[in-house]
Amino acid sequence: SILWKKMASGQQWVLVEMVQAVYEAPAYHLILEGILILWIIRLLFSKTYKLQDRSDLTEKEIEELIEEWQPEPLVPPVRKDHPALNYNVVTGSASHVIVVNGKTCINFASFNFLGLLDNKRVKTAALESIKKYGVGTCGPRGFYGTFDVHLELEDRLAKFMRTEEAIIYSYGFATIASAIPAYSKRGDIVFVDEAACFAVQKGLQASRSNIKFFRHNDMADLERLLKEQEKEDQKNPRKARVTRRFIVVEGLYMNTGDICPLPELVKLKYKYKVRIFLEESLSFGVLGDHGRGVTEHFRVNIEDIDLISANMENALASIGGFCCGRSFVIDHQRLSGQGYCFSASLPPMLARAAIEGLNIMEDEPDIFQILRKKCQHIHKALKGISGLKVVGESISPAFHLQLAKSLGSRESDVRLLQDIVEYCMTRKVALTQARYLEKEEKNLPPPSIRVVVTVEQSEEDLDLAASLIKEAAQLLIH
After folding, report:
1. Of 55, 162, 202, 409, which has fewest CB within 10 angstroms of its CB?
2. Quick one: pLDDT at residue 309?
């Protein structure tokens, strides 16, 4: 009973303290607590919301609505005469002389820069490889898709480019599109030339990084962006320490035919502590005394470049692509390069063809000087054409012809340029327009005719093409 009395007195004391606290509490505090109590009571006793049954339509009306409903089209409508739906069909090899839609023409459209597509040595090596390995691999590199010829090609590419290691992909487009997101992740920052090709754009999109475009080959604009980022990093140094920064450029731009100013880029790299990714699909096998690309062209130490990528579908006339650089950088792609990890590996016959192509490049170093002279020859011949302008460096084997003045709409410009292409085609010179996914491109280039120079073309071929383009321009451009 004594214990019970003590407990009762304790409860009374607590109650007295609560009443005293209520009297001493500020008025606004009591008002707020009162509102909260009333709100809780309202929630407890309010009726549960119920969906009302629709009773305003009869079953017959519902059936009629269902019959009348038409879903949105899966894809937007496309004209039957769209160029992508009307192929130029090639019969035979797409080498120096090409048969297109039954017409025999001199080929100024295929990226067969060094003429290896129909080379006897390359074809013999590929045929011997078919007898040994078959036609494919049926597995990615990590699952019985690594053949000895793949390792040999990677070793040869690394030695040719004078880097520690190389990695090959079975699809050229996927090479840079897989390499970029292997290193640059969400939250990282990538500074990109606005003229970057579509493969680079897809790699940037997959990386989900913070993308900052600078004006084409404008180093002042790039440095402006780098300075702005430097100021942002100073505001939040903790975040800056874990944020990676990259510059992504092309050695020789697919969309413009321009060469990147690599020496200036290297200076900015060390000044602002960023990494450089160099896409060399057009410059590999073209620029430099031995075809090693833009680093050799400018005499830049290749160790100053963090990653080089290129495809083997142009100068080497094979399929696939490669990346090269330091071993620890390349090995990372073997673990996280999606195109490498999940695609079937390169068919051994194409790997062997690429090796033989490298052999020819090493055995015949004069081939690069021959190509440059032919590029300069046709560039000079095409200067001053009324109504057209040449876009690209004089030593670029792939350059553009754009209208000097637009007709007012992209569709009209494309139609006029196609008329020029067809005019030349009927006179045995095969050209093509540059094609783009217009709704997907970040910075859509103007319509153009792309002219491709190869070592197989003679001076007579080059002069014929130039004269036909001039004739077509004079006849069709008003």
Report:
1. 55
2. 95
